[in-house]
Amino acid sequence: MANDVSMNDKDVVLSTIQGGSPGRRPVALLSGGAWTFRQRGLSLQEALRDPERAAQIIVETNEIVRSDIVWPGSGYHNLAIQAIGGKIKYRVKGTPDVTEPLIGEKIEKIDLSRISDDENIASLWKMTGIVHKLIGHKTLVGSSTWGPFTLAGLIFGVERLMYSLYKDKAAAHAILKLSTELAVKYLEGYIQAGAKILSVAEPTASGDMISRKHFQEFALPYITQLMAWIRDQGVLTFLHICGNISDRLSLIPESSTEVLSVDFKVDLKNVRETVGSKIAFAGNVNPVAILKDSSPDRVFVEARRCLCEAGEEYPFILMPGCDIPPDTPLTNIETFINAVKKSAYVFQERSKGRSG
C-alpha cells in the first residue's frame, strides 16, 4: 500500500470511505467526549457551560492524540431526551444517564421543537462549529446521536418498547417514527455547524437485546430513513451497534450507512467477508480490557491484529469497539493511534531517503 504523503488525516478517511487507496489505514477514536474532557479534569456538565473552552480542549487534545476523526458533542446524546421532557443525571465522570423516560406522555404531546430552543444543545452545536472552524480543513469533524430504536427505548421505556414488539406493533412503530424525527431535529444543528460525518449509535438494537427478525422489522427501517436523510444533507453516515450483531451483518448494507462500526464481540474477519465489498467498516479493539486496562504493548498488538484481520484490500478504519472509558490512559491512546501512524511515518521517511 503506497503512501500518498500529500493527504491529510481528513483526506485519508474520505478516500477510504469512498473506496480509494490513501496509503495508510485511517485510525480514530469512537466518540471520546467524556475521555477528552477528563484529560483536563472536566466533567461533561462543566464542559457544556463553556463551549469555547470545550472546543479548544478538543482541538488541543487531538493535537496530541492525532485521531483522524473528532466527535464534538459525543457523550451528550441524552440531552435530547432531557430537552423533550425526560430526566437525566450527570455523572462525576462519564456520560449522563436517563433516569426517567417519558412513559406517561402521549406521543402527540411531545414537542420536538424544544430541541431547537434548548440552551445545552445549542452549546453543543456551537462547540462543534468552533472545532470545525479550527481544524475542519485537516481533520474530519463529526458528531453523533442515539439511533431511532435506542431513542424509542429512552422515550417509551425499554421494557415497554420490548413488550410492544410482540403485543402492540402499532405503538412501537408510532414511537419509532417520533424518535426518528427527534434524531433529525437533534442532528440538524450539527450539520449547520459544519459536521461532515454523523454517527448513529444503536446499542438497544444489538443481538444482545433483540432478534434478527425484530431488528429487520423495527430497527432497520428507521435507521435507513435516518441515514438516507443524513446523506441527503451531503454528510457521511456512520453506524455503530454495540454487542454481537453477527446474525444481522448481512442486513446492514441495506441501511444506507457508509461505515459500519462493530463491537469487540464481533469477528472482524466475518465483518470483512460479509460487508467489506459493499461498505467501509470500523473497529474493534476492546475499549475496557485492552485500551483502559492493558499495557501499551498489548494495545499495540491488539491494534495490529485488528488491522491484519480487516485485510489490506478492504475499506477499514481502525477504531475502538465502543466509546473509551474516561480513565483510559493517554499513553494507551497514543499507542493505539501509533499502531497505524508510526509505521506510516517510518514508511514515509524511508521513501524520502530512497528518493534523496
Automatic annotation (TrEMBL):
A Pfam family it matches: URO-D
InterPro entries: Methanogen_methyltrans, UROD/MetE-like_sf, Uroporphyrinogen_deCOase
SUPFAM superfamilies named among the record's database cross-references: UROD/MetE-like
Signal peptide region: none
Membrane-crossing residue ranges in chain numbering: none
CDD domains for this protein: URO-D_like
Domain Uroporphyrinogen decarboxylase (URO-D): 10-342
PANTHER family noted in UniProt: METHYLCOBAMIDE:COM METHYLTRANSFERASE MTBA
Protein's UniProt name: Uroporphyrinogen decarboxylase family protein
